[in-house]
Amino acid sequence: MDKYLEEAELLMKKIIWILLFAVNCFSATITQYVNTDVGEGGNGSVGTPYNHLADWEAQNLNLTDNGGDIMYVVCSGTTPDTTALDINGSTTSTTNYIEIAGNFTGAKLDTTKYTIHRDNADPIYIQINNVRIHNIQIECHRTTTGAASGISTDYQTTGNIWIYNCFIRVIGTQNDGHGVRF
Fold first, then answer.
1. What is the DSSP letter of 79?
2. Element at 8 (helix H, strand E)
3. Which pLDDT score is estimated for 3?
4. Nearest to 129 by CA among 169, 101, 102, 89
5. Which pLDDT belongs to residue 61?
6. Could you give phi then psi for residue 11, rounded to 5 degrees?
7. In DSSP terms, which residues pair with 180 in a beta bridge?
8. With contact defined as beta carbons under 8 Å apart, do 57 and 15 qualify?
9. C-beta separation of 69 from 93 below 8 A
10. In 37-97, where does DSSP find H-type helix?
C-alpha cells in the first residue's frame, strides 16, 4: 500500500511541476508607457508612449486574458494628466491583473513627477477587480456640489484593488471629499 501512495505522490508532484511550467510559459508581463510630456498619437511603446492613461486604457481594453498576463503601465512626465481614467471592461484575476506605476516616491506633491489631475470629477474610476496602483500622484479640485474622490470604485467591484505609495489630494469647497471611495 505504501508503494502505491509513494507512486501517487510522485505522480502528483510531476503534474504540479508541469502545470507550473505551463503557467510560466504562457503568461507574460505586457509593459506599456505613458508620458504626459510627449505629443498625442503614441502607441504605448518606450519610444512612443501614450500621452494620457485614458489613451492607454482605450487601446488596451482586451490585452489581458485568463492566461496569467500582467498589464504593467509605467507613467511619467511633468505635465499633469487631465484626462479621467475609467478602468473598465478587462478580464482579470489574481494572477492576471493590471498594475499602474508612477515615478512618485516622496511625501508631498512633486511637480517633477507624474500626476493625474481633474477639476470637478474623479481622476480615477475603477470598475473591475485586480487592479494595482502605486507611486502615482492624484489630485482632484472640486468647486461644484457632489462628492469628490481621488480614486473611486464601482459598487460592484468586490476586491483585490491595491492602492499604495500614492499621494492623493482632494481640495474643494464642499465637505464631501474622499481620497479613495469604495
1. S
2. helix 2-26
3. 67
4. 89
5. 59
6. -65, -45
7. 151
8. no
9. no
10. 53-59
CA terminus-to-terminus distance, the chain? 54
Q: What are 35-44's contacts with CB under 8 Å, separation 24+?
A: 35/75, 35/76, 35/77, 36/75, 36/76, 36/77, 36/78, 36/79, 36/80, 36/81, 36/114, 37/76, 37/77, 37/78, 37/79, 38/77
Provide the pLDDT for residue 26: 54
Taking 50 as the pLDDT cut, the residues of the chain under it are 17, 19-25
Q: What confidence score (pLDDT) does residue 144 get?
A: 78
Q: Is the dihedral of CA 30, 76, 56, 158 positive or negative?
A: positive
Look at residue 65 and give its three-state secondary structure.
Answer: coil
Report the alpha-carbon distance of residue 167 to residue 136 in Å, rounded. Answer: 6
Q: Are 53 and 88 in contact (CB under 8 A)?
A: no
DSSP string, 83-126: S-EEE-S---BTTB-EEEE-S--SSS--TTS-EEEEESS-SEEE
Helix (H) or strand (E) holding 28, with range, is none
CB of 30 within 8 A of CB of 71? yes
Whole-prediction pTM: 0.80
Q: Which amino acid is at 41?
A: G
User: 144 burial class (0-12, 13-18, 19+ CB within 10 angstroms)?
Assistant: exposed
